[in-house]
Amino acid sequence: MPGKPPQPPPSEPPGSEAGGSDAISDGERLGPLTIERHRKADGRALILYSRADATAR
Amino acid sequence: MSERRVSELRGEEVVYAVQRQERTFLPARDHCPLDATRPGGPATEIPFPAFEIAVFDNRFPSFEAPDGAAEVIVYTDDHDASFGTLTAARAEALMWVWRHRYAELGARADIDYVFIFENRGVEVGVTLHHPHGQIYGYPFLPPIPLAELLADERRGGCAPCALLARELAERERIVHENDAAVVYVPYAARWAYEAHVVMRAHRPSLLDCEPAELSALASALQRLVRGYDALFQRPFPYVMAVHQAPTTGLHEGHLHVEFYPPLRTAEKLKYLAGSEQGAGTFISDTLPEESAATLREAIARGA
Fold first, then answer.
1. If you count residue pairs, one on A and one on B, with CB atoms under 8 Å apart, how many are there?
2. Which candidate in B39, B97, B173, B263 could, as Cys together with B292 as Cys, close a disulfide (CB 3.0–4.6 Å)?
3. Number of domains making up chain A
4. ipTM computed for the complex
5. How far apart are CA B59 and CA B72, in angstroms?
């Protein structure tokens, strides 16, 4: 797990984040879902879950 | 990094997460950090132009490895949605995500209790309106889950199972039910419109549920939340708390979801004042049976 995330630059507006991420896994299955794991630019974990049949949006 | 101290007088842990003082507070609509990152728009927590459900480490954590976890779970990229307005398929998917996070966080040696919750509305201190919940991985067993385990001991068996049996026998506080879940205002509710969504079968955690039960749980939760919104014809604030087994290896508990709404009328809030804060005893202005009748009608209207 990542350590404490770095503080944003002082000029960054509230709530904004450094963009971008690295994919670290793709296509795990969980019941009806697929899982994509990413690492955000500041090192924090990000997981995206999608319906495998893509009908849940 | 947070600091934990034990209050000797209360016999409870207090967590000092001073980094949270700087967390994002009710940002402008076009700077929501939980939106997708749209082309040409500001960067957000989710650097993709669209997503279904996203989970990420909280930027302002109350707990973090190696002493717990704090995650944010975003239900949708639709900023103006709510748990109640999600499609049935999305709500069901959310149950699978909860289950996945319970399994992964609960497997960590530093986490004793996985707590999934949602704060909805400024009345309960929400700082971002985008539909989302949170997950805390506590490095200890918090007092309320502990109290529930102690209730099991006191009663000599699963307390939620016994309380559910009582509600099913008396029926006057039940507001909704389906094949797998029962929704009722508890006999000793603290809040005017408090409601518990309880699995019919003894299921210690989401991991013990069949897929059909996850679907039914999602349905029951949505019916309740839509009923809440119909109650006073306004978005209804609440704290939603998912209670399930600790992850210490002690697989005891009974999966249920508790809702604590602070409204006692359309305009009046229940405040935690002298008796509640100073003596620990809730004083309620309403009877659970009367609230249940009102809520039952609202759920029918909100369907």
1. 110
2. B173
3. 1
4. 0.94
5. 9
